[in-house]
Specification:
mainly alpha, 2 domains, 82% helix, binds fe (ii) ion, Four Helix Bundle (Hemerythrin (Met), subunit A)
Length: 211
C-alpha cells in the first residue's frame, strides 16, 4: 500500500507541476493548444508507466519466489574461443565447478570435496597449458602477457587449495563462486583477445592449402 501511495503522490506532484506551471507559462505560450494536448498525453503515459512499475515489481518478486537463487552456471556459447579443444575444456571446468558447488551445498563428504578441488586445480593447469601450446604454435604475439594472467589465476587457486588443506570447511560456496567468476572473467576478457588472431590464422592456413 505504501508503494501505491508513493506513486500516487509522485503522479499528483507531476500533474500539479505540469498544469500549475509548465502548461500555462511554458508550453501554451510557445506551442498553443497542440502543446497542451501533447503535454496531457505525455503526462498520462508517464502516469501509466509509473503505476506499471508496481506491477512489474510484483511479477519480479513472484518469479524470484518461483526460481530459488542458484549458483549453478552452465557453459554458454558466449565463452567460446572458437577452438573446439579449448571449448571442451571450458565446459569440463564449468561442470566441475557446478559439481563442487552442489557438493558443498549438500554438505558432501569433505574428502570428496577436497579430491575434486585437487582435480580442478590440476585441470586448470592442463587447460592453460593446452591453450598456451595452441597459441605458441600459431605465433600469438601476446602470449607472454596471456601466460602471466594464467599464472596469476593458478596462484589464486593454489592459495585456496592450501587454505582447505588443513580443514575443508575453510572453503565456502562463496569462495568457489568467486574463483569461478575470475575464470569466467578470464574467458570473457583475456581469452576473447586471441579469437580474431586465431580466425585470421585459420583463414590464412585455408588459403595456403587451396594453392
Ligand atoms: Fe587464457
Amino acid at each position: 500500500m505504501l508503494k501505491i501511495g508513493i506513486r500516487i503522490i509522485g503522479i499528483g506532484l507531476l500533474h500539479s507541476f505540469l498544469y500549475g506551471y509548465l502548461v500555462p507559462f511554458v508550453i501554451y505560450p510557445r506551442f498553443g493548444k497542440d502543446g497542451i494536448t501533447f503535454a496531457v498525453i505525455v503526462a498520462i503515459m508517464v502516469s501509466i508507466g509509473i503505476m506499471a512499475t508496481l506491477w512489474l515489481g510484483k511479477n519480479k518478486k513472484k518469479k524470484q519466489r518461483r526460481e530459488p537463487m542458484t549458483n549453478i552456471i552452465e557453459w554458454d556459447k558466449k565463452y567460446s574461443v572458437d577452438e573446439p579443444e579449448l571449448d571442451e575444456c571450458q565446459k569440463q571446468l564449468m561442470d566441475m565447478f557446478n559439481t563442487l558447488i552442489e557438493m558443498k551445498t549438500k554438505k558432501s563428504d569433505p574428502k570428496d570435496v577436497a579430491n575434486l578441488i585437487t582435480e580442478l586445480n590440476d585441470f586448470f593447469k592442463i587447460f592453460f597449458s593446452k591453450e598456451e601450446k595452441i597459441l605458441g604454435r600459431k605465433g600469438y604475439p601476446d602470449l607472454d602477457t596471456h601466460a602471466k594472467s594464467h599464472r596469476r589465476f593458478i596462484k589464486k587457486a593454489i592459495v585456496l587449495r592450501r587454505e582447505i588443506a588443513e580443514d575443508v570447511d575453510n572453503l565456502s560456496v562463496e569462495d568457489i563462486v568467486e574463483l569461478r567468476s575470475l575464470l569466467i572473467a578470464h574467458f570473457e576478457t583475456v581469452d576473447t583477445m586471441f579469437i580474431p588472431f586465431l580466425r585470421i590464422h585459420k583463414y590464412v592456413e585455408e588459403c595456403e592449402n587451396k594453392k
